[in-house]
Design brief:
The complex is a heterodimer of chains A (171) and B (438). By secondary structure, chain A is α+β, with helices and mostly antiparallel strands. Chain A has five helices and four strands, in the order H-H-E-H-E-H-E-H-E. In chain A, strand 2, helix 4 and strand 3 form a beta-alpha-beta unit. In chain A, helix 3 packs across helix 4. The longest helix of chain A is centred in the last third of the chain and has 21 residues. Chain B is mainly beta. Chain B has three helices and 32 strands. The chains are: A alpha+beta (171), B mainly beta (438). At the A-B interface, helix 1, helix 4 and strand 3 of A face strand 16 of B.
């Protein structure tokens, strides 16, 4: 069950990214299975520290929020610290930070709440030295959950701000 | 195409009875009714050129409209003692009384090429008199359902004293697919789900379409650019243009003012969402709220003087009313829970809203000062009410729980009675009920 749900989650994340802007993963992340390349450093794979795949999986591309909150948690700040370091080291990348809400809320309110979450992540990255001009924010409200059960276990993963990279070596 | 050729002509016929008295045939909708009123709706008598089942099809739509309100009960034709074989023949009241038909709708239909003409009379059986005057409706055959809806509107109006709402359209979001990859497109349909037309594709997320007061234009939010932006779409031509596109912002939750010239909406800059107003013609915009709170879901009063909206400035989502030009807002919701998506009734007397309380969602109504709150529904997730043009019925969306969850449109009377799903080919959300058509 666990394995299945995490696979679903990755698929959902990939398909969401694809439907908005296929290029925003930057170079090489598409079609590369990071798990298959654990031997050496394959450019663009998760074992390449300069790759979006590495950012997504090793650094962590998302922070989670409490119900109806947009305050960063200590875990969230730690993840964003790592994102800031990575972004400062990989200055070719820009990012869109996507804010999301769980389904327990009205549509319009959740759009605004998602914007608060995305902006909280953006402001923190800026406070850590990332140039404001490299970051954009958008909210999807409750339109794009990654987990579909109507329980807190799913809701907790849906209340998120995801830093989606764009640009990079191939851009 | 979106515009169906229609020339609807409404004219009065001479009364069948010399002095039509005003009978006791009456339903008071507000009286938390009731025993539905038994009505007989025989097939319309075919006259010149009306071959086939025109008379039956029209009678069926009239019957569905009336029984769909929960205020009428149809007497099946198998119980009829006398048949209406000629529109001109005198009504055999005794035969209709015997089967307890309190109202009788009798009509005739004729067809000539692509033109259809319907005439009908409404009888108060127990008074033995015609209720109101006979009417004739004419149009093109492809608009035959509109003619039937207009007939039903007349019957509903004469018996309840309220304006009808059957000859109206609803714009909404038609949905398919699971929650994590739902595809959405704008659609417009008759109030009963017939004659559906799709206004956009489903490549991009589209949200919350809103009719203009005359039903000629629709405001909506689309992620076409990757960011939510407000568009205005002409229903006739399906041409659309972006309305608000300040870089680095998001805009959503638009709604027309009654004048059709001003649009109110939410604009998000950074973490903050405020309410703005824009003139559609000039594109000039003006900020109406300026707190750090979330302010969204604005809706005008029907006279255009005030705006009801939701804000979490108190710490949770609550409803507020402010002057149309902005300025001091007065909180009107004080019950337990969170209140959102307020919509002012077209009659001006009530505000419909979505309420969240104890893990459940409700559609409710309150007076415009917040008093006399009543919850009409309860479920896992009900949201987004919209008013029928007569202010007596509310449509909304209900999403079911879990991985297989699906969103469906429902309607309910403001009494809380007659909750029923609206038939749509796919799932539906974000309905916006347009005006009574002319």
């Amino acid at each position: 069950m666990k394995l299945k749900s995490s696979i679903l989650m990755i698929c959902a994340a990939v398909s969401l990214a694809a439907c908005t802007d296929p290029a925003r993963f930057g170079g090489g992340a598409d079609g590369t299975d990071p798990l298959a390349n654990s031997g050496g450093v394959v450019p663009g794979s998760a074992s390449d520290p300069a790759s979006p795949a590495y950012f997504q999986q090793a650094v962590g591309d998302r922070v989670l929020f409490a119900v109806d909150q947009s305050t960063l948690t200590p875990e969230g700040r730690a993840t964003l610290d790592g994102q800031a370091v990575w972004l400062l080291q990989n200055a070719d990348f820009t990012a869109v930070i996507e804010g999301h809400a769980d389904e327990q809320g009205t549509r319009e309110y959740n759009l605004a709440l998602g914007a608060r979450r995305a902006d909280a992540a953006r402001a923190y990255l800026v406070s850590q030295g990332v140039q404001p001009g490299r970051l954009q924010v958008v909210s999807f409200g409750k339109e794009r959950p990654i987990e579909v059960c109507s329980e807190e276990a799913c809701y907790a993963k849906n209340r998120r701000a995801v830093t989606v990279l764009a640009g990079g070596l191939t851009s | 195409m979106i515009v169906r050729a229609l020339f609807l002509m409404l004219m009065c016929l001479a009364p069948a009875w010399a002095a039509a008295q005003s009978g006791p045939l009456r339903i008071e909708i507000t009286e938390g009714v009731i025993e539905p009123l038994p009505v007989a709706i025989p097939d319309l008598v075919p006259e010149g050129g009306a071959t086939g089942d025109w008379g039956q099809r029209i009678a069926r739509v009239v019957a569905e409209d009336l029984t769909g309100t929960g205020l009428f009960r149809e007497i099946p034709s198998s119980a009829f003692i006398s048949q209406v074989s000629s529109f001109a023949a005198p009504v055999q009241y005794a035969d209709w009384k015997a089967i307890n038909a309190q109202a009788l709708v009798a009509g005739a239909v004729s067809v000539n090429g692509d033109q259809i003409s319907v005439k009908f009379r409404l009888y108060d059986v127990f008074s033995g008199a015609e209720l109101g005057e006979g009417l004739q409706l004419a149009g093109t055959t492809d608009a035959w359902r509109r003619i039937a809806h207009k007939m039903a509107d007349v019957v509903y109006s004469r018996i309840t004293g309220e304006t009808g709402y059957f000859d109206s359209r609803v714009v909404f979001v038609s949905e398919t697919g699971p929650k994590d990859s739902r595809r959405k497109r704008l659609a417009v349909m008759d109030y009963d789900g017939a004659n559906i037309q799709y206004l956009t594709g489903s490549e991009d997320i589209v949200l919350a379409p809103r009719f203009s007061g005359t039903g000629d234009r629709v405001l909506y939010t689309s992620y076409e650019t990757g960011f939510p932006r407000i568009y205005v779409l002409d229903v006739g031509s399906v041409q659309r243009r972006v309305l608000e596109s300040q870089p680095g912002t998001m805009s959503f939750a638009p709604r027309f003012a009654p004048n059709g010239q001003t649009v109110v909406y939410s604009l998000t800059q950074g973490a903050n969402t405020d309410i703005w107003a824009m003139n559609v013609g000039s594109g000039q915009s003006q900020r109406l709220t300026s707190t750090p709170a979330i302010e969204t879901a604005p809706s005008f009063s029907p006279d255009g003087s005030q705006i009801v909206f939701e804000s979490d400035r108190s710490g949770t989502q609550q409803l507020y009313v402010m002057p149309a030009g902005g300025g001091e807002a007065r909180r009107i919701s004080f019950g337990e829970g969170r209140y959102g998506t307020p919509v002012w009734s077209p009659r001006g007397d009530l505000i419909a809203f979505t309420k969240q309380s104890k893990g459940r969602f409700h559609i409710g109504v309150m007076r415009t000062d917040g008093s006399e709150e009543r919850l009409l529904t309860a479920s896992f997730l009900d949201e987004g009410p919209t008013w029928a043009p007569n202010g007596r019925v509310i449509m909304f969306a209900r999403e079911t729980q879990g991985a297989a969850g699906r969103s469906t449109l429902y309607s309910v009377d403001i009494t809380g009675r007659n909750l029923r799903p609206v038939r749509t080919p796919e799932g539906g959300s974000d309905p916006s009920w347009g005006p009574l058509q002319r």
